[in-house]
Write a structure and sequence with these properties.
- The radius of gyration is 14 Å and the shape is globular.
- Helix 1 (17-35) packs antiparallel against helix 2 and helix 3 packs antiparallel against helix 4 (85-96).
- It has helices spanning 17-35, 43-59, 64-78, 85-96.
- The chain is mainly alpha-helical.
- The protein is 61% helix and 0% strand.
């Protein structure tokens, strides 16, 4: 079922592969952001939201609306930093694995 979406299972683990993908992408982007020498006004917001995404990934299946909110905030704060474009794209792809948030 998940394999048709390009997902792989973690051998010997019950971990949701989407969560593993999210955790990996967030970790990579956090490292890239930490090594970025330049400062920009909303850097703290991006760091806080990446920390929130990392915490959600550690706790299990995250809340989809919260994932999308964090992604929007991160994209808004670092979207113009070309050095982070690939990492941001990877986080976006990982968030999209969880599907769309329901709007009531």
């Amino acid at each position: 079922m998940l394999r048709s979406l390009g997902q792989r299972s973690v051998t010997g683990s019950e971990e949701d592969p989407r969560v593993a993908e999210l955790r990996t992408a967030v970790s990579r982007l956090r490292r890239e952001l930490a090594t970025l020498p330049s400062e920009f006004p909303d850097r703290a917001i991006a760091e806080d939201e990446l920390a929130a995404l990392a915490a959600m990934a550690l706790s299990g299946v995250p809340e989809i609306p919260r994932l999308h909110r964090s992604l929007l905030l991160i994209a808004g704060t670092i979207g113009s930093v070309s050095a982070l474009a690939r990492g941001l794209s990877d986080v976006r792809s990982a968030v999209e694995l969880f599907g769309e948030s329901r709007r009531d």
